[in-house]
Amino acid sequence: MPLMIRQLSEALGAEVIGLDLSRPIADAEFVRVHRAHLDHHVLVFREQQLTPRQQIEFSRRFGPLDAHPSQGDAHLAGHPEILVISTRQENGKDVGIRNAGPLWHSDLAYRQQPSLGSMLYAIELPDSGGNTGFANMVKAYERLPARLKAAVGERRALFSSTRNLSLLAHHPVFRTHPETGRKSIFVNPQLTKSIDGMAAEDSAALLSEIYVHCQQPEFIYSHEWRPGDLVFWDNRCVLHIADHTRLDDPTYIRHMHRTTIAGDQPF
Fold this sequence. Notes:
Blueprint: E1 4-7, E2 14-17, H1 27-40, E3 42-45, H2 52-60, E4 75-76, E5 79-86, E6 89-90, E7 93-94, E8 117-124, E9 132-136, H3 137-142, H4 146-152, E10 156-160, E11 168-172, E12 174-176, E13 183-185, E14 192-195, H5 200-214, E15 220-223, E16 230-234, E17 238-242, E18 255-261
Parallel strand pairs: 2-3
Antiparallel strand pairs: 1-2, 3-16, 4-5, 5-18, 6-7, 8-16, 8-18, 9-15, 9-17, 10-11, 10-14, 12-13
């Protein structure tokens, strides 16, 4: 089957059809995939059968991998490049991160160099629930009311890790994509603490208005996972959130492998 790119929603997202990621990808095919990633921000590869090594090798086509600063036992044994997202337990202990992404966020935004993007591979899924929402922050910026753009101006914001409050970074509220040159909204409810140079109440009020704007349905694609899905999102211009409505259900098994591509410092 020839390589095809099929748009998934008006907001963002596309499915890549006719590509087996367990095999080497020709340079011409990779160029098309890379272009589709820049154009659609989220790519879905269905019915993949990947070993950890194959997922790592495909991820590295986009750049060096970034080790997630999670607890060591959340990484796949023998493959430190892979973070395990899972509700499975062994001997009464979680085998990975159970409650990843409960709020809208961009990965590792509290670092000086947040990630370029993440690839999440679905190995085992529940019969229902567990969707992932993706929000297009380029469109959100373009449609942001002028008064909110003016209120932010060129300000930066403070980001902090939810697990380690000593991990801090200041990034532009409006980020410029290093490859496309397009601006997007970069702040998020999970990791952004305040806008620099503003009183706490004013900062909180402005961020709240921006978040409400960003969460409008016109900017969002909700991905319904199937076993074998590999989803690759552009962390520089996309927010995402995981559905955790069944997280406490012992029959709810959601087991995934994530690789993270290293990024650069936002400007």
